[in-house]
Structures are given as C-alpha cells and as structure tokens.
Amino acid sequence: MPNVSTLMKNSLSASLADCQSQQDHRKIKIHRVGVKGLRYPIEVRDKNFESQHTVATVSLLVDLPHHFKGTHMSRFVEVLNAHGRMVHVCNVFSIVHELQKKLHAETAHVIMEFPYFIEKNAPVTGSKGLVDYQVRFEAAAYLDETDFVMWVTVPVTTLCPCSKAISDRGAHNQRGYVSVAIRFVQTIWIEDIIELVEASASSPIYSLLKRPDEKYVTELAFDNPVFVEDLVRNVALRLNANQDILWYRVEAENMESIHNHAAYACVEKELET
C-alpha cells in the first residue's frame, strides 16, 4: 500500500487549483508558448572525437488551443530532463514528440543554441588553438509530420575585390559571418559545413597565429578577394553539389572595416515539394 509521504503528496496535489486548465473565453489560439532561455548542459556528436560537451540555450514551445487559459510550464523542463544530455538529429525528435504528448499539443518546437568548438592548426607553424562556432538546432512536429533545420554560423576573413583593384597599396579586409541553415536527408556534420564555408571565403579564421601564420593568411586573403555577394554564391555552389541537402539558406554579413555599416547578402534554395 502507498506510504504516508505518497498519500500526503497526492492529497496536496488534489487540493491545489489548476489555473492553467481553466476555460478561456476569448477564443484566441496561441501558436507558441513555453519556456525560453533555459541553459542546459548537452553532449553533441563530434565528427573527430565522437562527442563533445557544451552548454545550450534551449527553447521548448507548443501550441495552446483557444479554450485553455494556460500551459503547464513545469512539464517542459520535466521532458527535457527525462531525455538526458546526448543531443543529435535522431533523439531530438523524442523530446518534440514527448512535448506533444505531455502537453496535449498539435505542434511542438525544440530550439537549442550552443557554442561548438574545433581545434585548428595554424597553417604554417601548426600551432593549435580552439575556435568556437555558433550552432542552432530547430526541431518541430506538426501532428505526425516532423521538421529539422540545422544552423551553423562561421566567422571568416573577406577582402574587398574593389579595394584591391583600385588601391596602389593593400586592400581593406574584415571579419565576416556566414550563417548556413540546411534541411537534409542524411546526417551532415557540423564540421563539414564549417569547412565548406571557410573554403568559400578569402581566408579562414584562427585563434592562434604566429608571425609566419599571419603572413600566410594575410597573403591568402589578398589572393582570394570576395564581395559579400561572392561569398554567399560560393557557399551555395558547394551546397548544391551535395545531394543530401534538400534546402538551404545562406546569409553573410561583413563587418566593414572602412564603413560604419555592415554589408549583407542572402541566398535561399527553395524546398522541393
């Protein structure tokens, strides 16, 4: 038979008002409601080292029918905690479906943003340093249909072709950020997207460079000038060559070194139906 503690908990729960389940008469459906900004330690699959530990900022969201006053916020955190720390394309949908079930929702969304680290060797001296990249997983379920989008933001160096063409000495260059969102059939590694973007820019970014390395990357950028338009087109061409990618969106933003504004470009591949 139940112990005294269990009986007391059940009695307390029965006596507390459930305001969220009360009827709402305004007849307005809420399309997304839940928790945002929840920091949670996760373990992400790593191409070179099987997995790596990082900390994600998590959003857990569902729809709310018009006749319910509110949702049960604690259940979102319960679902996340119940699924452990290993996160990848396959198991993230178990979180989404559990949100649908536990919160009686038609749609559910799980968004995780986290820094992802890669050890890079400097191009000449081989000096090792960690570079962080921002990654975002967006998983969603609409009744029985599911959707997954992976975002990877990659810092790069870009050098202006026009500045190089018109200047007697040097050319202005700057740090750019390329954000790539993809839907895919087979798993695409985060590392592969980073490598693809870096190959499309004037030069990759490194965390540790000695003088021979700095000379190399400076001259590499000078030999490979790209406008922000070139950058997104270069990335798009490489994405088009991968038959496992169904859809993509590429955004590039150059933090201009001689202007007080940024240069921006975007290209998107339509999702085939």
What does it look like?
- By secondary structure, the protein is an alpha+beta fold.
- It has one domain: Urate Oxidase (Roll).
- The protein is 28% helix and 41% strand.
- It has 7 helices and 10 strands.
- Strands 1, 2, 3, 4, 5, 6, 7, 8, 9 and 10 form a 10-stranded mixed sheet that branches.
- A hairpin with a 2-residue loop joins strand 5 and strand 6.
- Helix 2 runs antiparallel to helix 3 and helix 5 crosses helix 7.
- The longest helix has 13 residues.
- It starts with a helix and ends with a strand.
- The model has no long low-confidence stretch (mean pLDDT 90).
- One of its GO terms (biological process) is tetrahydrofolate biosynthetic process.
- It is an enzyme of class 3 (hydrolase).
- InterPro entries: GTP_cyclohydrolase_FolE2 (IPR022838), GTP_cyclohydrolase_FolE2/MptA (IPR003801).
- Its EC number is 3.5.4.16.
- Keywords: Hydrolase.
Question: For the terminal residues, how far apart are their CA atoms?
Answer: 57 Å
Number of strands: 10
Q: Oligomerization state of this entry?
A: single chain
Indicate the radius of gyration in whole angstroms. Answer: 24 Å
Low-confidence blocks of residues? none
SS-derived structural category: alpha+beta
Fraction in beta strands: 35-45%
Largest sheet: 10 strands, mixed
CATH topology: Urate Oxidase
The CATH superfamily appears as Urate Oxidase
Q: Give me the number of helical elements.
A: 7
